[in-house]
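Before a colleague's protein record goes any further, I have to sign it off. My question to you is simply how this chain folds and whether the tokens agree. I do not need a full report, just your reasoning and any doubts. This is what I was given:
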Amino acid sequence: MEKHILISEKSKAGLPAHYNFPYNATASADIAESINALRGSGHGAKLAVLILTADELSRLEASGEHRPSDSVYFRIIITGAGIHESLSESPLLAKVAHVTSSPFSAAELSFHLKKAFSSMDLEVKLAAERNAYQNTLLDMKQDQEDLINIGRALSIEKDPDHLFRLILMLSKKITGADAGSIYIVEVLPDGEKQLRFKYSHTFSKELPYEEFVMPLNRNSIAGYVAVTGTILNIPDVYMLSKSDPVAFNSSFDHEHNYRSKSMIVIPMRNHLDDIIGVIQLINSKEDDTGNSRMTGNEAFEIVLSTPQDFERKVVPFASRYESLMEAVAGQAAIAIENNRMMKQIQMQFEEFVKASVTAIESRDTATSGHSFRVAEICKQMALAINGEEDGFFKDLRFSDMAIKELEYAALLHDFGKVYIDLAIFQKSKKLFPKEFENLMMRFDYLYRCVELRFLMEENRLLQKARGGIDVSADFDKINADRTSRLGRIREIKATLATLNEPTVTNNDPEDVIRKVHEELDSLDCFDPDGHRIPVITDSERMNLEIRRGSLNPLERKEIESHVVHTYNFVSRIPWPPEYRNIPEIALKHHEKPDGTGYPGGISGETDIPIQARMMAIADVYDALAATDRPYKKSVPLEKTLSILEDEARNNKLDAELVRLFMRHRIYERVDRDSLKTGVV
């Protein structure tokens, strides 16, 4: 520390002549100005004894230069006349080392100077201790805040890659490290372990990195820490000796013209105390201005570019970082394990959903892969919306979680069909095969009954002919009548076979069936006991009168009930908050904007979620494009897109979403073959 003596001109009279001052003594016409000059010169603390008169003390008070300072410490010796009682009220009283109205002897002056400097030495020491204690408290407070912030940040990060980057960034920030890497312990199928170099970043130099694996042993610094669980805090890796348990491989430094110096390596332990990885930090940085307090931004502000930078700005990692980084590593390990578990649970749940959907769709091979294709179409539509920069959807964005929610809802949208009679789903014609077979058998029986009746008439005529009666005219009439009636039965049979097909026809099925009934009423069909047999039952008549498709109203209502069954099922699943909309999306995917959908007959954009409107388009498109539905042939792409546009014009589908579907050619983004059996 520099030591100075500042002597005012007026106080010289009270000092011994030819006195040999022990330190740098300077005569000063303006003490306040001299103090200010000391504050602005050089670095470090300066000690000064001010020798002045009482009136000069008053001027010093007025100047304000007596304010406390860490750069200049001073004591005051007051000499000469004019000392009065007001000194007791002076703010500088604590700085006054001695007051005298008599001239100093050399011995007396030496004594008071020595005493004043000794007092300032103690003050500087106490100030340094106080500052060190305050810095320690500030560091502890900052460490606690850092741990809280790190814990909060790590707990909300779900993306594994982002998590590794976040762990390293936060570790570098609190230690001022210039570079760092994360290694993860991996367990191989045979039970052996290896260490994966997972992530790395260097602030001062953009260095490439690629993931690689290395044996889990003590031959590397990271491997040693991963095996032993020991924290390594190395001041300079190039100063390691052969007796040290680790050695530094300098090949990376040589290859990339970098200088690794200080290093701290910390194991990451999970809740079972197993080591799951290692955090390695390199080159703790500190500015070279003498400021002992870190700003917290050293890692991302101080650049190491020259050899001098590495020498002057790189310091050993403080010992307190060992316990601090051990806590950070523990939080990081928990975050990584939680992330792994969440990913595993997510994967298991996703596989369970896919397996369940595959099992359900295996009941009906005709719809195999339908739910997977609908899910993929919905996902692609969501991604297309996210890419819209202007237009109707420019302000709408789907997060990753929202897209996954939509995928799950789409995969499960037909889950309720497990409660529906499979025969109804596989009903390819208006009558079930057995029903149609029975109907045809009844017509065959009717045919034989009519044929038998005419044979009986022929036998009656034969008996008359044997009695000598001419029956030729009657025979011709009966033969013509038989030919007509049996031909008509064959025509009706063919008509009913045609009517059984689920095609749209210009002929009114009800009118056709009514006319057939009127004809059949004149044709008697009896069982062997003589009871009249109805050729067409009421149930068959109801089914054959279906105008479109193959389902009668009761069957269609049962099919439509699958959305309610789906809703009841998925509502019982305890979805996390980010998936809470799945039941509603699945329930409403058959609702239509004009209110003609089911099950609620609701309408409008506000009542039908956009995800359900997207799914409606995907569902209709895949149903039209399907190549293996038993009740219909695949509709050509051009015709399918035309139907979607017609449905949009008629307010059966969301027009804006249909336009998006067309504009982005979503139908070309789905590989129907790969999704045939639910492979995503």
Notes: The longest helix spans residues 106-156. The chain has four domains: 2-130, 157-341, 362-426+557-668, 433-550. Residues 675-680 have pLDDT under 50 and may be disordered.
